[in-house]
Structures are given as C-alpha cells and as structure tokens.
Write a structure and sequence with these properties.
With 133 residues, the protein is of the alpha+beta class. The protein has helices spanning 12-30, 34-38, 56-65; strands at 41-48, 54-55, 69-83, 86-98, 105-118, 121-131.
Length: 133
C-alpha cells in the first residue's frame, strides 16, 4: 500500500493519511519533483487562484520549470475536514525561497485542497492558493 492509500476513506486514519499526503504534495512542489507530484493528483485536477485555471499538465509543467530554490517549507496551520469520499485540507503554508542571485524571501499562502477518494487512493482534485501579504 503506498502513502496515498487507505483501507477506507473515513476516520482518524484517513485524517492522518491526508495530513501526510499534504506534506508530500508540498514537498514535491518545493523540490520540483513533477513525477512524484503527479502521483498525488487526479486526472481531472485543477489549480485555481493563480489568476487563471490550470489543468493537471499545465500545473505539473509549471512546477518543473519554476525558477526558485526552496530552502525550507512547512505548514503554519493545517486542518482536515472529512466529507465522505471527499476531504478538504486547508491552512497556511510557509516556504522560504531564493531565486538566482537573490536574497531569500518568505512566502506565506492560504491554501485549500480538495481530495477525492478514488479506488483505494486519496487524490487532489482541486487546489486553491492565495499569497498572503
């Protein structure tokens, strides 16, 4: 059973699985690991809140081509709400990034990820993120 699998989509074990998956998703984004990130996304994944709607392929391409180096990343706040075969994970993530030849900056974003339980896997169906100032 891989990290995104769970015997059933309900209960405390599902919440723990979703917390781990959320950390894995953030890690894959920050390390530009498109192939790993792809395993966490549904085929009909959509990213909202970036000024335009991105489908799965466009989002994966943007992760691979991002021109920053993440120094560290974490969730300041994270919460899981189970809704049957759907779950909403929301909170605030903080990432310290550095561009080429630039000083590091801290990026804080409020996020909401909607996971769906398909077959035996929790997959991200919709992600929404807004930079906090």
């Amino acid at each position: 059973m891989n990290e995104s699998q769970s015997e059933h989509p309900h209960g405390e074990s599902a919440k723990e699985t979703l917390l781990c998956l959320s950390a894995d998703v953030l890690d894959a984004i920050c390390t530009h690991d498109g192939p790993r990130l792809a395993t966490f996304l549904s085929a009909d994944f959509a990213l909202l809140g970036s000024g335009e709607r991105q489908n799965r392929d466009t989002f994966l391409e943007s992760v691979l081509s991002a021109d920053f180096h993440a120094l560290d990343w974490m969730f300041e706040i994270i919460d899981v709400e189970l809704l049957g075969n759907t779950a909403v994970v929301s909170g605030i993530q903080r990432v310290t990034v550095q561009g080429d030849g630039e000083a590091s900056i801290v990026s804080r974003a409020a996020f909401t990820d909607v996971f769906v339980f398909q077959d035996t896997n929790w997959l991200v169906r919709v992600a929404c993120s807004h930079e906090l100032v």
